[in-house]
């Protein structure tokens, strides 16, 4: 605190590409998330983290912090410091329409959105007029292309699936779930669907 006050601090930290976040133990204030601070603890965000893994880290940090705080309890109110309210930022609820991927965005933005939505809401696109859930991705180091076609699929090494994004870079799809099917790896998807030149997501 006071960064990311509101309903979706974990998801928003990932969505914005933060490399660290944290937990805050605070007194209850008159307004949400505005109470005086008793203790804070920083939590690292790795490029592989999603909301599920980051929530686990934050839960562990929260338990550790509460135990640390309780060890100092002497029967008196815990000392605290006011928040810097002028530095506050806010985050709202994640909406269902936020799940729909816009491949004209930058590859890093799309990667961050996908991991922010997983595993609670799941990012989605379309393929051959059916829903396709995108579960896990990573930015690709493949060379930048001029005049990109957002959503265009590219097969690499017969096992890797890449999608072109609006900045000309590619996003590698690691795991996905076609409509009415189980989740699968990119390799399994390529073997089963045999994508054609020029096919796209979205």
TrEMBL record:
<dbReference type="GO" id="GO:0004479">
    <property type="term" value="F:methionyl-tRNA formyltransferase activity"/>
</dbReference>
<keyword id="KW-0808">Transferase</keyword>
<feature type="domain" description="Formyl transferase N-terminal">
    <location>
        <begin position="2"/>
        <end position="67"/>
    </location>
</feature>
<comment type="similarity">
    <text>Belongs to the Fmt family.</text>
</comment>
<keyword id="KW-0648">Protein biosynthesis</keyword>
<dbReference type="GO" id="GO:0005829">
    <property type="term" value="C:cytosol"/>
</dbReference>
<protein>
    <recommendedName>
        <fullName>Methionyl-tRNA formyltransferase</fullName>
        <ecNumber>2.1.2.9</ecNumber>
    </recommendedName>
</protein>
<dbReference type="Pfam" id="PF00551">
    <property type="entry name" value="Formyl_trans_N"/>
</dbReference>
<dbReference type="InterPro" id="IPR011034">
    <property type="entry name" value="Formyl_transferase-like_C_sf"/>
</dbReference>
<dbReference type="InterPro" id="IPR037022">
    <property type="entry name" value="Formyl_trans_C_sf"/>
</dbReference>
<dbReference type="InterPro" id="IPR005793">
    <property type="entry name" value="Formyl_trans_C"/>
</dbReference>
<comment type="function">
    <text>Attaches a formyl group to the free amino group of methionyl-tRNA(fMet). The formyl group appears to play a dual role in the initiator identity of N-formylmethionyl-tRNA by promoting its recognition by IF2 and preventing the misappropriation of this tRNA by the elongation apparatus.</text>
</comment>
<dbReference type="Pfam" id="PF02911">
    <property type="entry name" value="Formyl_trans_C"/>
</dbReference>
<feature type="domain" description="Formyl transferase C-terminal">
    <location>
        <begin position="93"/>
        <end position="194"/>
    </location>
</feature>
<dbReference type="InterPro" id="IPR002376">
    <property type="entry name" value="Formyl_transf_N"/>
</dbReference>
<dbReference type="InterPro" id="IPR044135">
    <property type="entry name" value="Met-tRNA-FMT_C"/>
</dbReference>
<dbReference type="InterPro" id="IPR036477">
    <property type="entry name" value="Formyl_transf_N_sf"/>
</dbReference>
């Amino acid at each position: 605190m006071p960064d990311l006050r509101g309903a979706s601090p974990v998801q928003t930290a990932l969505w914005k590409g933060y490399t660290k976040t944290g937990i805050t133990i605070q007194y209850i204030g008159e307004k949400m998330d505005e109470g005086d601070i008793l203790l804070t603890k920083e939590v690292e965000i790795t490029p592989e983290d999603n909301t599920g893994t980051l929530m686990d880290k934050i839960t562990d940090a929260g338990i550790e912090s509460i135990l640390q705080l309780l060890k100092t309890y002497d029967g008196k109110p815990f000392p605290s410091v006011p928040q810097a309210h002028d530095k506050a930022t806010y985050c709202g609820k994640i909406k269902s329409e936020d799940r729909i991927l816009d491949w004209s965005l930058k590859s890093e933005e799309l990667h961050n959105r996908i991991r922010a939505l997983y595993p609670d809401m799941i990012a989605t696109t379309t393929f051959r007029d059916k829903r396709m859930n995108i579960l896990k991705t990573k930015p690709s180091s493949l060379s930048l292309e001029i005049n990109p076609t957002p959503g265009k699929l590219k097969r690499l090494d017969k096992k890797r699936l890449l999608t072109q994004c609006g900045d000309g870079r590619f996003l590698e799809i690691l795991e996905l779930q076609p409509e009415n099917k189980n989740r699968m790896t990119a390799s399994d998807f390529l073997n089963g669907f045999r994508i054609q030149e020029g096919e796209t997501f979205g």
